């Protein structure tokens, strides 16, 4: 028996990379879109010199606050104190006086943009919105035209400082003892002051 040897002729097989290229065409844009690009931000700080600090201390900075209570508005500067106290009626508040005072403050400090509203807990939401609208801008009559003037658009909100109450006088103290009458008298003197 003869062994037949067959020569296996090996043909070179080409790689089919079209499927791989299709995958890359899809993955590369997807990876680029979802990648987070980091930015390096450099903040340049210019610290003030001693002369600039001294000049800033000389210049008066207005820190305007509006304290809104159940029966009043109090416009004040946090550094200098009360500017104006306005009695307020919940049914018919006097917005004309309120607006005139804010316009006058704005004319004296034209660069000032911010105000802090300090509210008592019992002030209702409607009052807060009305005050915010009137603090942002006002209608001012200029000759024959009505012009809308921007007042203080940057508004911050906080809690009003608690008013210090008079010392409470108990019923047992006022029932005929001399100390009770002296406490009542001192309370009346404090109110009259």
Description:
It is a single chain. This protein has helices spanning 18-34, 50-58, 95-108, 125-136, 178-192, and strands spanning 64-68, 72-77, 81-87, 114-119, 137-142, 145-150, 154-159. Mean pLDDT is 74; it is low at 166-193. Helix content is 35%, strand content 22%. With 193 residues, it is of the alpha/beta class. The longest helix is centred in the first third of the chain and has 17 residues, at 18-34. It is elongated and about 125 Å long. It has a domain at 61-159. The strands form two sheets. A five-stranded mixed beta sheet has the order 3-2-1-4-7, covered by helices on one side. It contains five helices and seven strands, in the order ααβββαβαβββα. The termini are far apart.
Write the layout of secondary structure elements.
Blueprint: H1 18-34, H2 50-58, E1 64-68, E2 72-77, E3 81-87, H3 95-108, E4 114-119, H4 125-136, E5 137-142, E6 145-150, E7 154-159, H5 178-192
Parallel strand pairs: 1-4, 4-7
Antiparallel strand pairs: 1-2, 2-3, 5-6
């Amino acid at each position: 028996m003869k062994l037949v040897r067959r020569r296996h002729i090996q043909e070179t097989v080409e790689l089919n990379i079209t499927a791989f290229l299709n995958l890359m065409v899809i993955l590369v844009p997807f990876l680029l879109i979802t990648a987070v690009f980091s930015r390096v931000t450099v903040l340049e700080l210019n610290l003030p010199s001693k002369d600039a600090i001294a000049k800033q201390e000389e210049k008066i900075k207005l820190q305007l606050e509006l304290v809104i209570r159940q029966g009043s508005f109090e416009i004040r500067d946090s550094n200098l104190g009360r500017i104006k106290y306005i009695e307020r009626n919940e049914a018919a508040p006097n917005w004309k006086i309120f607006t005139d005072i804010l316009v006058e403050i704005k004319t004296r400090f034209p660069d000032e943009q911010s105000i802090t509203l300090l509210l008592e807990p019992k002030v209702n939401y409607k009052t807060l919105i009305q005050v915010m609208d009137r603090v942002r801008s006002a209608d001012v009559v200029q000759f024959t035209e009505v012009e809308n003037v921007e007042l203080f658009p940057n508004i911050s909100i906080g809690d009003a400082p608690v008013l210090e109450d008079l010392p409470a006088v108990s019923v047992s103290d006022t029932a005929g003892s001399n100390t009770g009458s002296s406490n009542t008298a001192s309370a009346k003197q404090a109110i009259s002051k």
